[in-house]
Amino acid sequence: MSALLEVEGLETAYGSSQVLFGVTLGIAPGEVTTLLGRNGMGKTTTVRSVLGLTPSRSGSVRFMGHRIDGQAPDRIARMGLAVVPEGRQIFPNLSVQENLVAFAARRNSSNTPWTLERVYDLFPRLAERRRNMGNQLSGGEQQMLAIGRALMTNPHLLILDEATEGLAPLIREDIWRCLHTLREQGQTTLVIDKYVQRLIGLADSHTIIERGRVVWQGSSAALSADPGLWQRYIGV
Predict the structure, then answer these.
(1) CA geometry: angle at 110 spanning 106 and 116, to 5°?
(2) How many C-beta atoms surround the C-beta of residue 219 within 10 A?
(3) Number of folded domains in the chain?
């Protein structure tokens, strides 16, 4: 099966400081994969480079068979690539419903597109708060809204950057439940998170990066069988 997203030899720098050194990864349609590593190792920079927010210096990024490195971020997004960013970045002066409607699009050909009703079914809390402004929501509700907003674009690929970071345990469980639902529905997803055991039960494959370099790639079964790997590259 050909990859939906193919990243080859990606090198990215901020000024004279190089952050990524030949990062390579691929995601097949319908697959859930993760990008793992300690803080500051280049995970978010990899995502930003894929999205065109931080231009790469060399390497290539292909999405649905097309080269997208060097393209403008808005053009990449319109191709059907959606991100739930670290920090959520919802509009504080728009209501929940306005935040969702503002991003409504049909970027894939699914027979069951994401609509307001489907997002509210996924996150009943948002339905209850649909008239509340973004700045009136709790952190967990804002995270639900950020995920719902990305789904409203009906993306081919959904990227979640630290979607459970800083959330109360009960809200975190809601997010994990959402991710499993999306997997069951065939949503291709790239997840960045620190809860390895939860990710093993969710994802098909994993990529670990250390200081901007890929140091391991493999299946959930392989990662589960080598907990020493977690301590070496992921544990604090």
Answers:
(1) 55
(2) 13
(3) 1
Report yes or no on whether pTM surpasses 0.70. Answer: yes
Q: Answer whether residue 228 shows pLDDT above 60.
A: yes
For residue 47, give its domain range. 5-233
CATH of residue 170's domain is: 3.40.50.300
- What's the pLDDT tens digit per position in 169-224? 888 999 999 999 999 999 999 999 988 989 999 999 999 999 999 999 999 999 99
CA dist., res. 156 & res. 179, Å (int): 15
Euclidean distance between CA atoms 175 and 159, whole angstroms: 14
pLDDT tens, position by position, 67-92? 999 899 999 999 999 999 887 788 89
Characterize 115-142 residue by residue with b for buried, 16 or more Cβ atoms within 10 angstroms of its Cβ, and e for exposed.
Answer: ebeebbebbebbeebbeebbeebeebbb
Tally Cβ neighbours within 10 Å of residue 197.
11
